[in-house]
Design goal:
The chain is 56% helix and 14% strand. The strands form three sheets. A five-stranded antiparallel beta sheet has the order 2-1-5-4-3. A five-stranded mixed beta sheet has the order 7-9-10-12-11. It has three domains: 187 residues, Beta-Lactamase (2-Layer Sandwich), CATH 3.30.450; 100 residues, Orthogonal Bundle (Helix Hairpins); 167 residues, 2-Layer Sandwich (Heat Shock Protein 90), CATH 3.30.565. Helix 7 runs parallel beside helix 8 and helix 9 runs parallel beside helix 12. The protein is of the alpha+beta class and 545 residues long. It has 13 helices and twelve strands.
Length: 545
C-alpha cells in the first residue's frame, strides 16, 4: 500500500514538473513546429495549385471546343444554304455521319424540318451510367466534388425532350435555337450527359429566312483528359504526402526524440532521484543537437562536481569548526572550576586563541564561498602584476609580517606583465602565495616572486627556501582544508584555505595554478616549494575589439 502511494506521488510530481515544461515548449518551440508544418503546407499549396491548374486546363479545352463547334455549325449552315431544298436532307445526313455529330434543321415556323439521326444511323451514342462499372461512378462523384470545391457554375443536364404537342414548338425546346434566331448569330451551350460527358450544342441561323441549324457533339475526350491529369496529379500528391510523412517522422526521430531524451534526463537530474543519471552525449550527432547534448552532459557533470564539492566543503567546515569549538567549550567548562590564577590565565588564552581560530576560519570560509559568485559579476580591468606585486611586497615589509624573510619581486623581459582581471582578487592570490612561502621558509630566507610576459600569457613563479612539497602532495595542497604545516608552527594559525582560494581566483581569470618542480641551482639548491600561476596576457588590441 505504501509503495503504491509512493508511486502515485512520484507520478504526480513528474506530471507537475513536465506539464509546465511542455507548456513552455509549445510556446517557445515555434521554430521547430514551423519547420514541420512548412513541409505539410508545401503539400497543401501543391494540391491547391493543382486544383486551379486542372480547372483552367478544362476551361481552356472547352473554350477550344466551343470555337470549333461554332465554326463547324457556321460552315454546315453555309453549305446547307448553298444546297437546293431537295438536297438538304442528304447533305445533313452526310455531314452528321462524317463529323460524328447530330444536326437538326428547324424551319422558320419552328418545326423540326430535318434530323441527321433520322436520316442516317446515329453517329454517336451516350452511355448509360447504370451499366458502367463502379470506377466510373467514383470518377463522376469525384468530378462533382471538384466542381463543388472550385465553385464551378452549374451545367444543365442534356436530355432529349419529348416531341411537343404542336410541331411548331419544337424549336422552343432548345434555348440556344431561340437565342440564335433572335440575335441572328451563332450560340454555343454546354450540357452534361447522364454520365457527365460534356455535350456541346451550337445553333446558327441558316440564311435570313428564320431557319436555324443546331449541331450536337459530345466531348468525352475533355472529361477523359481532365481525369487522366487528375490521376497523374493524385499520384504526385500521394508521393508528396508520403514524402511529407517520411520527413515528419525523420524530423521527429532526429530532432524531437533526442530532445525528449535530453529533457527526461534533465528532469531526472533536477529531481535528484538518481545521482548516476547519465545524460546522453549523442557522439554520433555532429549537428547542433549533438553539441547541445554534449554541452548539457558537461554541464550536468560540472553541476554534480559542484554539488559534491559543496557537500564535501560543508562536511569539512563542520569538521574544522568542531575542533576549536570543542577546545573552547573545554576551556570554558574548566574555567569556573580552577582557582589557580596562572591556570585561569592559560585557559583564558586558550579560549581567546580558539575564538581567533573560529573567526579566521569563518572569515576564510565566507570568502571562499562567495568568490565564484562575485567574480562572475565583476568587470575586469587592466592590471599590471609587477606594480601590484611590488606594492604588496613593500606593504608587507612595513607591516612586518614576513618573519624576517625577504620578498624579492623580479621581472624578466621588457614587456610588462599586464593582464585583465580584478586587482583586489589578484592581490589576494599574491598574499596567499607569499603567506604560504613565509610559513615554510627558515628565518632570513628569501622568497622570490618572478614575473614574465610570454606573449600569449603571463607567468608568476613564487619560490621559497623551505622543505618543498612532495611530488605526491603537489595537487592535494590545493584542496580545501588540506594542511601540510611545517613543524613547530602554532596549531590553528592557518585555515587550510589559502591555496584553494588562490587557485579558485586564478581559474576564474581563465588561468591555472600548479605546484611544480623546484628550480635547479643556487640559491635553492634543488630545495623549496615552487608555485606557478599563468594568466592570459592583455594586449591593447583587445580594447579596440
Amino acid at each position: 500500500m505504501a509503495k503504491s502511494r509512493k508511486t502515485a506521488q512520484e507520478r504526480k510530481r513528474w506530471a507537475s514538473v513536465i506539464a509546465p515544461l511542455s507548456s513552455r515548449m509549445k510556446i517557445r518551440g515555434v521554430s521547430l513546429t514551423a519547420r514541420i508544418l512548412a513541409v505539410n503546407v508545401i503539400v497543401l499549396a501543391l494540391m491547391a495549385f493543382s486544383l486551379l491548374f486542372l480547372d483552367n486546363y478544362r476551361n481552356q479545352m472547352l473554350a477550344e471546343r466551343f470555337k470549333r463547334a461554332r465554326v463547324e455549325a457556321e460552315i454546315a449552315a453555309a453549305v446547307m444554304a448553298q444546297s437546293p431544298g431537295s438536297a438538304r436532307p442528304k447533305v445533313l445526313a452526310t455531314i452528321g455521319t462524317h463529323q460524328q455529330m447530330r444536326l437538326r434543321l428547324y424551319a422558320p415556323d419552328g418545326h423540326l424540318a430535318a434530323d441527321s439521326f433520322a436520316l442516317a444511323p446515329p453517329s454517336f451514342s451516350l452511355a448509360d451510367p447504370r451499366s458502367q462499372p463502379w470506377t466510373m461512378k467514383a470518377a463522376r462523384t469525384l468530378d462533382r466534388m471538384m466542381d463543388a470545391a472550385l465553385l464551378a457554375p452549374p451545367v444543365p443536364r442534356y436530355d432529349e425532350p419529348p416531341p411537343p404537342a404542336n410541331p411548331k414548338d419544337a424549336a422552343g425546346l432548345w434555348p440556344e435555337v431561340m437565342e440564335a434566331r433572335a440575335q441572328e448569330g451563332s450560340t454555343v451551350r454546354e450540357r452534361y450527359a447522364p454520365d457527365r460527358t460534356p455535350i456541346i450544342n451550337a445553333a446558327t441561323p441558316l440564311g435570313t429566312r428564320g431557319a436555324v441549324l443546331l449541331t450536337t457533339r459530345p466531348a468525352p475526350d475533355v472529361t477523359q483528359a481532365v481525369r487522366d491529369a487528375r490521376q497523374t496529379l493524385a499520384i504526385v500528391v500521394l508521393a508528396a504526402l508520403l514524402t511529407t510523412v517520411f520527413l515528419s517522422l525523420f524530423l521527429a526521430r532526429t530532432i524531437v526524440q533526442p530532445l525528449r531524451v535530453l529533457m527526461r534526463a534533465a528532469v531526472r537530474v533536477r529531481l535528484g532521484r538518481d545521482r548516476t543519471v547519465i545524460v546522453p552525449r549523442l557522439p554520433e550527432r555532429g549537428d547542433e543537437i549533438g553539441l547541445m547534448a554534449r554541452a548539457i552532459a558537461d554541464m550536468t557533470e560540472a553541476l554534480r562536481q559542484r554539488i559534491d564539492g559543496v557537500e564535501a566543503f560543508a562536511a569539512d567546515v563542520a569538521h574544522e569548526i568542531k575542533n576549536p569549538l570543542a577546545s573552547l567549550r573545554s576551556a570554558l567548562d574548566t574555567l569556573d572550576k580552577v582557582g589557580d590564577g596562572d591556570l585561569r590565565r592559560q585557559l583564558h588564552a586558550i579560549a581567546a586563541h580558539d575564538v581567533q581560530r573560529i573567526d579566521r576560519l569563518v572569515t576564510e570560509i565566507a570568502y571562499a564561498s562567495r568568490i565564484d559568485a562575485e567574480l562572475s559579476r565583476t568587470t575586469f580591468d587592466v592590471v599590471d602584476l609587477l606594480a601590484l606585486a611590488t606594492a604588496l611586497a613593500g606593504e608587507r615589509e612595513r607591516r612586518g609580517v614576513n618573519r624576517d624573510c625577504v620578498v624579492v619581486v623580479t621581472h624578466e623581459g621588457s614587456t610588462p606583465p599586464v593582464v585583465e582581471g580584478d586587482a583586489a582578487r589578484l592581490e589576494r592570490v599574491f598574499e596567499n602565495l607569499i603567506d604560504n612561502a613565509v610559513s615554510f621558509s627558515p628565518p632570513g630566507g628569501t622568497i622570490t616572486v618572478a614575473l614574465a610576459n610570454h606573449g600569449l600569457y603571463v607567468s608568476c613563479d613564487v619560490t621559497d627556501e623551505g622543505p618543498g612539497i612532495p611530488a605526491s602532495a603537489r595537487e592535494r595542497v590545493f584542496e580545501r582544508f588540506h594542511s601540510l604545516r611545517p613543524a613547530g608552527e602554532d596549531f590553528g594559525s592557518h585555515s587550510g584555505l589559502g591555496l584553494a582560494i588562490a587557485r579558485t581566483i586564478i581559474v576564474a581569470h581563465d588561468g591555472q595554478l600548479h605546484a611544480r618542480d623546484p628550480l635547479e641551482g643556487p640559491p635553492q639548491n634543488g630545495r623549496g616549494a615552487r608555485l606557478v600561476f599563468e594568466l592570459p596576457s592583455w594586449h591593447p588590441a583587445q580594447v579596440a575589439s
